[in-house]
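Researcher: I'd like a structural prediction for the single chain below. Treat it as a standalone chain; there are no partners to consider.
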Amino acid sequence: MEKYKMNSIEANFDSLNNSNPPISFLNFKIDNEWLDEKLSSLKSNRPDFDFDGLVPTLLFWLEKNQDQEVVWNRILPKNDEVAVCPILMCPDDCDFNCSLVVTEIHNSNQTIKWNKIGIDYSNSFDSNEVGTVVEWVLEDFNFEFSKLNYLTVLNKFKEQFTIEETIFNQKNPQFARKLKIELF
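Model: Treating it as a single chain, here is the predicted structure.
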């Protein structure tokens, strides 16, 4: 009898090669493939949708604090709960209103399952509405990760997020203060 094998998940540095100079960022690697490339290689209900070049929403790149909160609150649902989480976004706009890929995440105590992948069409200015209107384009698959492996990846993203936030605040102190006042 063949033993069931879970998917592997890592956080490694990738680069946007279409920028000059190339921009380095932390990206998901699943089963040794970049997430965007892996999704592009799977059979989708929407072959016209291009996953290639999308970047993780866990980066400091999201423009709105509310968007960041939604992602970080949903990326790890409570035990035995399911959440629809934005997982990949367009690197040009860095918000929920452009190409936004979501996944249905189930925390089953020992494992984390991404049950299906979809394109978000909620088109709301309320960040909490993301995931309410989704075209599920990859439903006949799932990724299943050990919870320990998944938590290690999330911690690596949190560390990088903090580093990028610190650098931004040091380089842009007036803008950072103004942005906090306007958003809160």
